[in-house]
Amino acid sequence: QVQLVESGGGLVQAGGSLTLSCAASGRGSYAMGWVRTRQAPGKERQFVAAINWSGGSTSYADSVKGRFTISREYAKNTVTLQMNSLKPEDAAVYYCAAGTNVVNSPQYWGQGTQVTVSS
Predict the structure, then answer these.
(1) Residue 27 pLDDT grade (very low, low, confident, very high; cuts 50, 70, 90)
(2) What's the farthest any 2 CA atoms get from each other in the chain?
């Protein structure tokens, strides 16, 4: 069992930056990443970014490439999402996720952290 706890959400102006962190507890080798759900009705979860167990491979949604960076710190078992040049459409609840395939079917989820981007 893996438990995930996010931190770092908040309110930021468009063009600004925000850093999300996720602390993981639990044994095993697993990829970690972030998935978001926007506030508009009917909006489904959207994959944002992922990093594999070794940290040697990362994946990003096209909408965040070049603006977001995911990284992993093994000593603290944490994953960080650095978000730059934020846009109003980035506003969402961001969930930390972990598992074998974070991009398509994460096995473990955090409770979510709200990111609000004002225009």
Answers:
(1) confident
(2) 41
